[in-house]
């Protein structure tokens, strides 16, 4: 019963256990077919039991109850009957995950070590998530993560009841999504000649080409696989900065009057490239073309368009960018960036989607607008952007608050939805302990306990603004994660602590959090991770083969800033 994330309530009923055997059935209505299929596949493989179809009122049974919230579920186990009552398909999946968890670590293996002795403990569980957005970002741009590893990662986060996979698909160092009408984005943009090993100061490179990309069918498969497990995949096409790979593929996208973009390759450094998009109408059209295909692949309401860390030097030096600023009646380069973001905010809204961006999208003003006021021109490709923002209604764009809480607080107070992912707390590329043993030590020291004590809703928000914090997200940037093994090390077990923060209604103040209780429950959870084949960071420090002596990182000292 050492469940992570902790359920809203769980009451053990001794003497009411349900031993499973070859006759145990599994039944669900068609609306809960995903949960039924997942349970039969995962539990059937791990236990060796057939879990054939049965009748209502017996065996393992899934039912819908419209009175519950979509992600909520109840699980009752009595002799001969385990009943998951779910508000919707997602709630049934989370209930199914809890049911598997009740069978112990070996129920998480892919084949059966034994076929008998599987016992569901008698229990009454009631459960529902605190936040609707419980996210994890995978940066597949800096280091490509092969499709099979992405699918495995989906299984791992589903086991933690996380429900958003934010795929950072494009960056200076690589473009990872096939776009049919622009084949050079992957033909040229999906690989680089070499990579930095560790941080810049180490001056170490591997002299080995790196690359890879997902075909559109790969992405359809990932999206469907995630969806069958309750997870929405949110794609990120980062613009107008972090775009050197796109510019290397299509030099006309860059600031050609400032740099010879035809000589650019995909970036082989870490950091923020100065080579950003130009702001021409042609470039807007190009990315509308990209996004048309992205929308076909990803049904997610939210589409992430980045907007972070766009150096403005090239726009300052570019006669074309300056002419564009004058033509659009904008004040400066920040407003030019806002113009681009506003354009795509409207463009997405006109297609029934919502833009989400990093908190820099607030910088040119929060008046980013999508819904035309009466008499204003329609959003979409025809909107040249010459209108002032005041001509438009309210934007429904949301903000990923990464540079601390400030952007998120400002956005929430202005009525925008916010996903809290401050780098000072939930950037899991950052080191987990001080000292020389951590591989490529970068960023703040953020221990498992620090993550457990993270509170996504800043206390100064009033109730109305706090409701705009729709969730929280842990971000796995991959400059220093070369493979799934490295991701396992940095993600786990911190992601288990994060999952509890995102799912469970914990006491809000960090000091009141029951860290000792979590630590105790973690023991069993680590055995679950072992059974799942996760190479997490042991609590006492890395295994010898998880260290990387001599590779230079970039530690940042000091406590997290006060909110
Ligand atoms: C970011 O870390 N640049 C969003």
Brief account:
The protein is 30% helix and 16% strand. It has helices at 33-47, 89-102, 147-159, 184-187, 216-227, 244-249, 281-297, 313-317, 319-327, 333-349, 406-413, 423-426, 448-452, 463-466, 484-491, 494-503, 515-532, and strands at 9-12, 18-19, 26-27, 59-64, 73-78, 81-86, 119-120, 123-127, 133-139, 164-168, 170-171, 174-175, 191-192, 210-211, 232-239, 302-306, 354-358, 398-401, 418-420, 442-443, 469-476, 554-555.
Choose one word for the global shape. Answer: globular
The small molecules bound here are: acetamide
Percentage of residues in strands: 15-25%
Total helical elements: 17
What report would you give on this structure?
The protein has about 575 residues and is α/β, with parallel strands linked by helices. It folds into two domains: about 10-125, Chitobiase/beta-hexosaminidase domain 2-like (Chitobiase, domain 2, 2-Layer Sandwich); about 135-555, Glycosidases (TIM Barrel). It is about 30% helix and about 15% strand. It has helices spanning about 35-45, 90-100, 145-160, 185, 215-225, 245-250, 280-295, 315, 320-325, 335-350, 405-415, 425, 450, 465, 485-490, 495-505, 515-530; strands spanning about 10, 20, 25, 60-65, 75-80, 80-85, 120, 125, 135-140, 165-170, 170, 175, 190, 210, 230-240, 300-305, 355-360, 400, 420, 440-445, 470-475, 555. Strands 9-10-15-16-17-18-19-21 form an eight-stranded parallel barrel, surrounded by six helices. Strands 1-8-5-6-4-3 form a six-stranded mixed sheet, covered by helices on one side. A two-stranded antiparallel sheet has the order 2-7. Helix 1 runs parallel beside helix 2 (about 90-100) and helix 3 (about 145-160) packs parallel to helix 5 (about 215-225). The two termini are about 35 Å apart. Residues about 365-390 have low confidence and may be disordered. The structure holds acetamide (ACM). Acetamide binds near residues 308, 309, 358 and 402.
